[in-house]
Amino acid sequence: MVTYIEAASAPYKNTGVIRLYTPEDFAGIKRACQITARCLDELASRVKPGVTTDEIDRFVFDFGMDHGALPATLNYRGYTKSSCTSINHVVCHGIPNEKPLREGDIVNIDVTYIIDGWHGDSSRMYPVGEIKRAAQRLLEVTHECLMRGIAAVKPGARTGAIGEAIQTFAEAERCSVVRDFCGHGVGRLFHDAPNILHYGRANEGPEMREGMIFTIEPMINLGRPHVKVLADGWTAVTRDRSLSAQYEHAVGVTADGCEIFTLSPGGLDRPGLPA
């Protein structure tokens, strides 16, 4: 049975209860989300052949420090970096390192900043120089999956409507949806209820209610949906080594739809994609 609670009355831990936030709360998380979006904007000109993901990660840390924001992933469950950088067949949680990016790579950069206790969580795909048409098409399909999922958000609908919108489009484009990872509630906690599946049926999942805040972050593969986690305990890759892509926004359910908190201030939500 799904339970909802006013966020101010909820304990500071994930108990499986869905928090309902106030308009003032929406303003608070939006501040954190906009710092994250500004960082992702700045990265658009920095992602290029020869740059290492460690350099990108150092920029994410420094940008946060310059804006009074703490990277949420830093020391989270033993993770030692300020961002996740997932290249080509890495689905998510790629760990920044000293290996340089190469012409034709695609990389997802996932950033979450904490400001005044609020978590601003978002990610985007970045092409590294000129990329192949298959990679370009995957980016286009994945971004469209995200936006179709967001369009399904409204009070009274169920979270399964998000998954159905994403799965239907992805599979019609001969791509697959990763099942092993999902979106999640976000706000005062980094990861909270409910889980937001990127596949399913419209009549499944909890009812969406005004005041809910969560991420939508579909991971779409050119090949099969199956993934495995490497020995480092973090890096998830496609089992068939096919390309994978992900875009992520944090959204809040409003009276008549939703508000996207992590929209790019510079209109750069779609790096490498046609306007």
Note down, in words, how this protein is organized.
It comes from Rhizobium herbae. InterPro entries: Creatinase/aminopeptidase-like, Pept_M24, Pept_M24_MAP, Pept_M24A_MAP1. It holds the Pfam family Peptidase_M24. The chain is of the alpha+beta class and about 280 residues long. It has 4 helices and 17 strands. Strands 3, 4, 6 and 7 form a 4-stranded antiparallel β-sheet that branches. The longest helix has 21 residues, at about 25-45. It is globular, with a radius of gyration of 17 Å. The chain starts with a strand and ends in a 15-residue tail after the last strand.
Measured as a percent range, the helix fraction is 10-25%
Taking the alpha carbons of the first and last residues, their distance comes to: 43 Å
Strand-residue proportion: 25-35%
- Taking all Cα atoms into account, the compactness measure Rg is 17 Å
**How many β strands by DSSP?**
17
Could you state the oligomeric state of the chains shown?
single chain
What series of H and E elements makes up the topology?
EEHHEEEEEHHEEEEEEEEEE
**Largest beta sheet, briefly?**
4 strands, antiparallel
**Number of helical elements:** 4
GO molecular function: initiator methionyl aminopeptidase activity
Subunit structure: Monomer.
Pfam family, one: Peptidase_M24
EC number: 3.4.11.18
